[in-house]
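pinned: reference chain
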Amino acid sequence: MFAALPFPDISPILFSLNLGDFTFALRWYALAYIVGILLGWQVIKMALRRPGLWPADTAPMDNRQLEDLAGWIVLGVILGGRLGYVLFYRFDYYLAHPLEVVQVWQGGMSFHGGFLGVVAVTYLWARRSGLPVASISDSLALVAPIGLMLGRIANFINAELWGRVTDVPWAVIFPGEAAQDCLLPVCARHPSQLYEAGLEGLILGAVLLGLSFGRGALRRPWFITGLFLAGYGASRFIVEFFRQPDAQFVAPGNPLGWALQLGEYGLTMGQILSIPMLALGLWLASRARRA
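pinned: its C-alpha cells
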C-alpha cells in the first residue's frame, strides 16, 4: 500500500470566468466532448476526400451532409446518454425526482445509452437523406475511440468511475469519502479510467484507423462498425473486472429484472450491456461483404 500513487492535483475545471451574477466554467469533461467531436469530424473529412477508401470508389456523403449529421450526433449522445443513465442505473431515484432527469449539468451519463442514441439518430438521418446507412455507420465507428479515450481521461481528472481496491504499485489514492470507503486505513484503487482510455480508446482506435486507411476495410460495409462494437464490448467487459461496480446497479427499483438476475452471477451492469455489443459486432464483422 505504501507504493500507491497520490492523486494528481488537477482541478476538474480547466478555467472559469466570473461574469457578474453568472460564472462560466469550462470543465475537462466538456472539453473532452468538444475536442472528440472536432477531431472525429476532421478524420471523417480526411476519409471522405479519398473516394477509393469506400465501396464503389464513392464517398458516402459530402462535407455539408457531414456538418448536418454532426448536430444530430450531439443530440443523440446527450439524450441517449442521459436516458440510458436514468433507466440502467438510477431508475428508482429519478422516478421519485422526475424534474432532475433534465439536469444533465449535475452529471450522470451512460455510454451504452449514448451509443443507442447515436444509432437511432444516425439511422433515421441516413434513411431520410437517402444515404448508405452502412458506410455512414462505419465512418462514425472509425472515430468513436477518439471521444472514448478523451472522455475516460476526463473521468480520471474528475476522480470518478475509479477502480476496485488493490495493492498494485500503480494504484491511485482517489480523493473523496466514497473512494475511501473500505476496510483499510487508506484505499488505493485501480485507475480503471486509464485502462479504458488505453483499450477502448488508443488501441482500438489505432486498429480501426490502420485497417481503414491502410487496408481498405471501409470498402466492406459494416466491417468497421462490427469491429468497433466487438472491440469496445470486449474492452469494457475486461475492464469491469478492475472497475468498481456501479452501486446503483443493485437498486431494487431498477426496471431491468433480467439484469438483476444476471448480476447475481457476479456480472456488472457494464458487462451485461457489453455482451450484446460484442455478439452483434462479431456477427456484423463476420458477415461484412467486400464491395
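why pinned: The longest strand covers residues 13-19. The radius of gyration is 20 Å.
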